[in-house]
Amino acid sequence: MSEGPERGTGRQMAESQLSELQNARVLLEEARGLSRNLAHHRRARLEFRIGEALDEVDRQIGELRADRG
Description:
By secondary structure, this protein is mostly helical.
């Protein structure tokens, strides 16, 4: 069966979302590296928040990949 226009659009949106999430993950990893120059108490708090954000991005990437598969 051929894909209808709606399914193709949905797939393109999922691919776009996946790409955006992967880009966000790279930026978060860069922020984590830059945070090492902060004072200890600020760094710990920021790294905790970055870790939470990375976990959420990873969860969403996993969901998108599962939906594609």
